[in-house]
Structures are given as C-alpha cells and as structure tokens.
Amino acid sequence: MVFWEGYVSDEAMGTFAPIVVYWLYAGFYQLLPPLDNYRLHTKKEEVKNSVPLASVVKGVLLQQLVQATVAQALFLLTSKVNASGIVIQPSIAVQIGQIVVAMLVMDTWQYFVHRYMHQNKFLYRHVHSQHHRLVVPYAIGALYNHPLEGLLLDTFGGALSFLVSGMTARTAVIFFCFAVIKTVDDHCGLWLPGNVFHIIFQNNTAYHDIHHQLQGLKYNYSQPFFPIWDKLLGTYMPYNLVKRPEGGFEARAMKD
Length: 256
Prior knowledge:
The chain has one domain (18-79, 92-253). Helix content is 54%, strand content 4%. The protein has helices at residues 10-31, 53-78, 92-119, 121-126, 147-165, 169-186, 196-200, 205-212, 228-233, and strands at residues 239-243, 249-253. It has a two-stranded antiparallel sheet with strand order 1-2. It is globular, with a radius of gyration of 19 Å. The N and C termini lie far apart (52 Å). The model has no long low-confidence stretch (mean pLDDT 95). InterPro entries: Fatty_acid_hydroxylase, Sterol_Desaturase_Related.
C-alpha cells in the first residue's frame, strides 16, 4: 500500500512526483536565510554566475517537460498488468535490490556521458558549458542544462536505470524522487550540520563543488550517488573542507 493508491496511478506519480519534489526541495533551500556560516562560497562569489535565476528556472522547466513526456511513454510501454488489470509488486527486498541496481546504472551512464562532454571540445563549448555557467552552484540550478544534455544525461540515464533494474512504476516513484533530492542537495552550496547525504555519501555537495571549480573541471565527474568510476579511472580529486575566517567553508582541492 502507498498513500496515493486509489487516487493517482503509479505511472502518473512516477511522472510528476519527481518534478514536484524538485521544486519543493530546491525551493526550501532557496527560501533559507543566507546561512553564511555554512556556505561553500560567499555571497560575493555569486557574481561569477553568468546566467540569471529566471533563465535557470526556464531551463529546468524545459528539461522537466521533456522528462515527463519520456517517462509517461516509458511507463505506458512497460506496464505489466495481470488478467485483473493489477500490477503485481515485488517484495520489499527485491525492490531495494532494484533501486541499488538502478543507482549503479545511473552512475555508470552519467559518469561516461558527463566525462565525454568535457573531453569533446565541441560538446563542452556548445552543450555542457551551459551547466558550468553556474560556477557557484545552488539548488534550483541542479537541473539547469542544455536541452540536449538534459535529454542524453538525465532523461536517457533515468530511462536506462528503470529498464535495466526491471522496477515497476511504483518503485520508480521512490527511486526518481530520491535521485532528484540527492541531485538538488549536491548543488545546494551549503555544508549543513547533520545533513544525512554528507554523512552517508562521499559523493556530496563539497565533492561536486570541486567539479564546478576551474581546477576540478576534469575531475569528480561521478554523479549522483557514488564516486566509484572516478576512483577506478583516475578522475577522483580529494579535497579538504577548510573553514573560512569570515564564516563558511571552502572545498579546497588536494592536488597530487
């Protein structure tokens, strides 16, 4: 049983819940006070961002429109109902296994596509550089990408994770909402005490902040869950989290 059963289909929830969760979680961060003692960048550094908030919001909405269209089509094409018109849900243990598989598939897809977009000068200049206009990341900009990148990196990556894992639309609701929350948190620009993502995941806000720095552009490609591929393929850049005298923290790359 899930709270939406009888009110909204699993397919509709899998399509729209991640979008709602994105704006709720990113909006929460946006509405927080400055919190200068926990910022990874000072407010003055935000002038490095070369795109206004309104353009970021439009870009994110466009990507979500594409994602919703693909998700709805994917759910309709893969729906498995029995003779009674009911989808049999696997056990909790199986669903957890499917989510773990989906996390690994998504990480693998995003690592190699993300890395290639940095290595291919044409793709970086005309596609991926749009995301790096946010030198100082913030939550709402987590999915601010060129439309082609949004399609290749996020939409196709999500579809592949869903298909390979074999999860149902109901399990996909949980997985995609969790992936959205993790992605937003990785871009929030804050190192808050007790943040569960910072405790559990080595690939977190500071880890991804290194990638947005000039010296880290060719490192820390892994997203959104684990740093496995970075460590295996030599693109892992460790860092120190240094407290700034004026307040806040700095993720400082540790070069070899």
